[in-house]
Amino acid sequence: MKEFILRLKRVNNNSILILMVVLCIIVTLFFGYRYLHNADIHSSAVWVDDWDYISYSKAIFNGIFLQEDLGKQESEQYHIDEVPPLFPMLLAVYYNIVGYNHLQSIVFLNALLNALIVIVMYYVGKRLLPGKYAFLPPFLWIIYYNRLDFSGRVLKEPIITLFLLLTVVLIQRLLEKRKLRDVFWLAVLCSAFSHLDERYLFISVLCLVMIIVIFRAKAYRSQFAKAILLFIVVCSLLYTPWMIRNYKRYNRIVILSPRTAMITDKIFGYDEPAKAILDLSANLNKAEVDSVIKGYDVANADTVTEKSIRRAYKNGIIPYKYNWGKRLWYNTISFWQPFSYRDFMIGSGFKYQEKWGLRYNFIVLLQFTIFLPFAVYAIILGWKKRAMDILFMFAVMFINTVQHSILGAGLARYRTVMDVYIYILAIYAVWEIVSFRVMGNDKRKPEKSYRA
């Protein structure tokens, strides 16, 4: 064993990283095609949200995405205007190369995105962990069961994960060098992130706060105003083109998508709300729930909600509208669920969550649950040391949890993108514990210490 460790130390880090990238691509391709093998992608059990992104990418591919009647172009386009444009644009470029008659080739794009995740994850970990410890978080990600679930899907989760890591990289660079060019690229990344998914609009605000904290020191006071102004100007310029498109489309100010219009309409005082994803199921009363259970269609409930209510009733649960307290509680539990032993409802009280089987509970226990206490300890260490990169990761996880618990449904799928943070923080905590106990506090050699 000792000889093996010595040999491992002699191996070049770049060689290990290349091997991990190759392994990631192979594993992703294998599980992606395994998922799609003999599967009917038109079945709601295989692809669901995927078709919205594909439809939007077709509209971009055909050059009609700026037209007012975009949502009426094809029968398969259900809520085509509900999503920001960046991911459909990426799909349009990709399928322009491979062709729309090869939709299942999305597995190759997912393999490439996950390979990039492995590389960036290593460089984030490298600034917190010494030597070859930095390879542990990306290795855990490669074999992570939940991320493999997306390998055969046309979903944003892989690219959202990549953007979350790139944001940390730029924050770490800012903490290390305090260069204005990094502020510029951070603004570009934040703008792109918001155009990828409007739920991550908060990243722009959080990064602005980080810039204020980073440049407030006396040594960098001369760059303080420049950094803030540069970030705001670049973000404003990059947000503007799509806002102009949306103004022509909706005849009102819409920042990213109709989802954000639910807030901006109130700010700007529009009388009639823009077309938006409204949680109609939140307005169901007892009589309407009873009608759904009896098999009737209800105007305020979509097909997915009706199926969810009937499944819940069949399994002994009578759905009802949650108050804010219960909504926050059940959505947060579902979002960070370490194990599952019973069925319950999430969202506004009408989205059915079935309990997991024994096999999946065991997988989650080994690949997620056991890392949570260590990640919490890493956050405590980060607070004590004022490690701003660690605190930034915590802030992202906290804000994302709150917004999904209050405004949406606390699906674990939406949390999985942040599990790269959990792995990095957990391994960091384990290294801190082991190095302190084994080598002694005075012999620890952390590679970097990023303090504001």
Descriptive notes:
This protein is mainly alpha-helical and 452 residues long. 63% of the residues lie in helices and 1% in strands. It is built from 20 helices and two strands. Strands 1-2 form a two-stranded antiparallel sheet. Strand 1 (344-346) and strand 2 form a beta hairpin. Helix 3 packs across helix 4 and helix 15 packs across helix 18 (388-406). It is globular, with a radius of gyration of 23 Å. The two termini are 41 Å apart.
Q: What would the average pLDDT be, to the nearest integer?
A: 83
N-to-C order of helices and strands:
HHHHHHHHHHHHHHHEEHHHHH
Strand order of the largest sheet: 1-2
Tally of helical runs: 20
Q: What is the strand content?
A: under 5%
Task: Give a summary of the structure in a few sentences.
This protein has about 450 residues and is mainly alpha-helical. About 65% of the residues lie in helices and about 0% in strands.
List the helices and strands and how they pair.
Layout: H1 2-10, H2 13-36, H3 50-61, H4 86-98, H5 106-126, H6 136-142, H7 145-148, H8 157-177, H9 180-196, H10 202-214, H11 221-250, H12 258-268, H13 286-293, H14 303-314, H15 324-335, E1 344-346, E2 351-353, H16 358-367, H17 372-385, H18 388-406, H19 412-416, H20 419-439
Antiparallel strand pairs: 1-2
